[in-house]
Amino acid sequence: MSAFSAIETKRDVDQNEFTPDIEPQATWCPGCGDFGVLKALKGAMTEVGKNPDEVLLVTGIGCSGKLSSYFDSYGYHSIHGRSLPIARASKLANPNLEVVAAGGDGDGYGIGGNHFMHTARENHDMVYIVFNNEIFGLTKGQTSPTSPKGHKSKTQPHGSAKDPVRPLSMSLSAGSSYIARTAAVNPNQAKEILVEAIEHDGFAHIDFLTQCPTWNKDAKQYVPYTDVQEDEEFSFEVTDRQEAGEMMYEAESRLSEGEVLTGRFYQDDRPSYGQEKRHTGEMPEQPLAERYFDDSYEWERSADLMHRHR
Ligand SMILES: Cc1ncc(C[n+]2csc(CCOP(=O)(O)OP(=O)(O)O)c2C)c(N)n1
Ligand code: SF4
Ligand SMILES: [Mg+2]
């Protein structure tokens, strides 16, 4: 089975296949929420029947970035805030790969925020997991874009004066076609949401609440949590942009007050960037990555294509 051929193929996979021989045991701190993401991702890939060599996991920098060291697949531990452009290029070159990008709240909503916005807008077909622990974990607990107003840290000892970003609302207005929030303390829901995100054709963004017991001393453990699909208090249609937006705003406001609302918030089925490009004929049916290994292929130089644009 190769990464070029297998996207439609399902088979029985043993979850242990995603545990690497080199670093089988993650070195995150005891009680870290990141363990929950790893477990849910292994479970979801197993459930959808993926082989490790059908998956590319691209991570940013942070404690969260270590995910690619502890998950056995093709992996790319990239640079801070830059997992998405690498993931996009990889998916375009080899659409048969199941591409997952992952990183922290600082990585994705701060330094990489611009890439987040445009990858969502262009609806690139991939899963994007943001480990949201509401601080910079790896660098020892500084204030991040999702730290609540008033949160005290070494960089904001008198409390942050800034309102946090609203990741779900931001994602909706940017253009993500699947948006969910789950929590490391809710492994069953996390796995189900990841399965949906993997099966979704388009940009699937998951805001994954991950507690950091080492540096985020205010940290909620994100319990108790409510699933908005299960609780009668909430009634909205995930395919209705306006209703979904209102629900997201509510969930983000309640998180600041310590109430954790999780679940699926939005979904649409518009074509992904790759589908659009193939439809217009601008992208070849044969994956670029396959051509690369084809010695007989005659490459066109971009200068030779200029006539198309004259
Ligand atoms: C360009 C660049 N700037 C700053 C850093 C230092 N740095 C490493 S990780 C990090 C923040 C990590 O926070 P987050 O993305 O929330 O991940 P977490 O560790 O919480 O999982 C920073 C600022 C870096 N590695 N590269
Ligand atoms: S510092 Fe926080 S985020 Fe990093 S491994 Fe430890 S508990 Fe997890
Ligand atoms: Mg963080």
From TrEMBL:
Keyword annotations from UniProtKB, A to Z: Oxidoreductase
Chain spans, region Disordered: 140-167, 268-287
InterPro entries assigned to the protein according to its UniProt record, in alphabetical order: 2-oxoacid:Fd_oxidoreductase, OFOB, THDP-binding, TPP_enzyme_TPP-bd
CDD domains for the chain: TPP_OGFOR
GO aspect biological process, one term: sulfur compound biosynthetic process
UniProt feature, compositional bias: Basic and acidic residues: 268-282
Residues in Thiamine pyrophosphate enzyme TPP-binding domain copies: 61-208
Gene Ontology MF terms: oxidoreductase activity, acting on the aldehyde or oxo group of donors, iron-sulfur protein as acceptor; thiamine pyrophosphate binding
Cofactor section: [4Fe-4S] cluster
Pfam families reported in the protein's UniProt record: TPP_enzyme_C
PANTHER family: 2-OXOGLUTARATE OXIDOREDUCTASE SUBUNIT KORB, 2-OXOGLUTARATE OXIDOREDUCTASE SUBUNIT KORB-RELATED
This protein's name: 2-ketoglutarate ferredoxin oxidoreductase subunit beta
